[in-house]
Amino acid sequence: MECWRVFYTKSRAEKQCEERLRAAGIHIFLPKRRVIRQWSDRKKKVIEPLFSGYIFANVDERGRLDTLEDPGIVGSVRIGRELVEMPQREVDSLLLLQKTQTTETIQMRGRRGAGGAGAGASGDGAAGDADQVEIDGVVGLVELPPPGIGAEVEVEYGVMKGLRGQVLHQRGKDYLIIRIHSIGQAVKVNLPMDWVREVIV
User: Fold this and answer.
1) 164/179 Cα distance (integer angstroms)
2) What is the DSSP letter of 19?
3) DSSP count for the chain of H helices, then E strands
4) What pLDDT digit, counting tens, does each position of 128-149 carry?
5) Count: domains in the chain
6) Whole-model pTM?
7) Strand partners, 177
8) In this prediction, what percent of the chain has a pLDDT beyond 90?
9) DSSP assigned state of 158
């Protein structure tokens, strides 16, 4: 049965692995980010892997073994003896972040990988943080407090609608943390808190 498996790659071999494996007909996914490289005399925008040293493939066991044959693949990611399976929700979150990214608002944190830039939030606006309450036939607006720190929320407006994450407060700003549990890393996304609603998990 096919599922999303996680693989280690050799250093800086992620893009070459992606090209070869895709050409071989393997359903591969390599999340990327756009960053600005600064030299003394110039700046240059480049595209690089979002997670250094990782690549993902939607494969069955035969496809996993075929993936391991690539010269740039080091091995399958495991927890103990168990192969790591990446949940579809994590894949969908990364696909959405990659689709909407800019070069300014994603930062990385985790065991492997350094700070970077990536997904921004722009879109069709928000409706505000009020709810309608009806009492004896009178409809009024009741202000709702924003989601608290650590709350699980879902984006309701903008190009990242449907994205789920956890609220983080840092230096006077609010962020969403999108956790990628399968590789022990997270992506930090900056967007207005009135674009999200709290969800019960």
Assistant:
1) 9
2) H
3) 3, 17
4) 444 444 444 454 445 556 778 8
5) 2
6) 0.70
7) 166, 188
8) 34
9) S
